[in-house]
Each structure stands twice: as structure tokens, then as C-alpha cells.
Design a protein that fits this description.
246 residues; mainly alpha; 2 domains
Length: 246
Amino acid sequence: MITIVLGIFFGLYGVVIGSFLNVLILRLPIKENITMKRSHCMTCGHALSWYELIPLFSYLFLGGKCRHCKAHISAQYPIIEGANGLIYVSIFLAKGITVETFLYCLCASALLALSVIEWRTQEIPLGFNIFILILGLVRLVTDLGNWSQYVIGLFAVSVFLLLINFVTKGRGIGHGDIKLMAATGLLMGWKRIIVAFIMACIIGTVIHLIRMAVEKAGRKLALGPYLSMGIFIAMIWGEQLVSWYL
């Protein structure tokens, strides 16, 4: 019963955070203030009332349309909110109530938002990487007995990607991806970040080859979403995968 109650709490908390992620996803690419300006319709600019801002329910209540101008509201809103809630529940069920759980939940939210932004703009906003780096420093401080695995994780994958960037003169990998793997490496440690990178390469290769065949997509791809998928997998099953491999 306690697990069910806590799971519901994590899910609802994730949904609420997901609502804020939508603000980041929409406003950061267009350089719009995320704190001072009230939530509004992206079509007519109408300032939203409190009952139009209830995660998930407001979208259903309004029938997916702006109450003021009747413009269609993107399904991204409930999808991101619901997905973030499910992510929080998944991490809680895998990790329980631990420092890792809270840090991983916050990191996963950042990964979700930056993935959508990079998919659309081919760019990872620096603020996300700084935020994840801060989470990594918190993890380092709360587990100083194992400090070496986090410090090694900071460089384990990022240095390799930096070499690729240098050899290809920036064409092979972006600086945002390098910083992302450095920050998450500090948060998760070297074993999990290597697992994350391997999984990201596998997932990215399979999905993009399918996209090239079906959608005629070009060879260039946004790597951030695939790295984020690999990182999430490593968060949940990283230790099990390492143990299985060894």
C-alpha cells in the first residue's frame, strides 16, 4: 500500500513537472522568458486562467482547443506531462526512496525536454547541461566514498566524443552532446555512462536507419534524444546490464 501511495505521488509530481517542461520546450528555442511571462496561448497570446493550467485535465476539459481563439492545442502538452509522470514512477519503482531517485528524476525531466528541443532545432540549450552537472556534483558530495567512479564518469565517454569532434572538425559530434555525456557521467558514474553510450548507439543506429528507409531522412541526426534514451536505460538497468555482461 505504501508503494502504491508513493508511486501515485511520484506520478502526480512528475506530471506537474512535465507541465513546466512544456514551457521550456516552447519558450527556450524562441528566447522567450520562462519566469516573468504568464502562460498563454501560443496562437492568440491569451493569458491562461488557473483552470486552464491543470496538467492533463485542462487539455481534456478544453477539448484540445484554446478557450479564447479556438485554435488547436498541440497534443505535445499531455504527452510530455504523462510521459514525465510515467518516467518518475519507473525510476521510483526501480530505485525506491533514495538520493539517486530524486536526482535521476530531475535529470530525466531535463533529458526529456532537451530531447524534444534538439529534435526540432539540432541544438541542446546549455542550461540543461549545467543543470545536470549540478545534479552530478550533488551526487558526488552525497557519495564521497565512491568519488572516483563519478570523476572517471565525467571523462569516460566525453573525452572519446571530444576526440571525434576534433578529428572530424566538428562534423562528427556536437559540443552539446559532449557536455551532456560529461554531466551525466558525473551523475551516474563510469559504468553506467558507458552502458548509456552503447545503448544510445544501438538505438540511434536502428531508429535512424529505419527513418532513412521509410522517411528518406538524411544521414545527419539529432543525437541528443538517443543519448537520452540510453541514459534512461542505464539509470534503470545499468548495474544489471554490467553484471550480466561481466
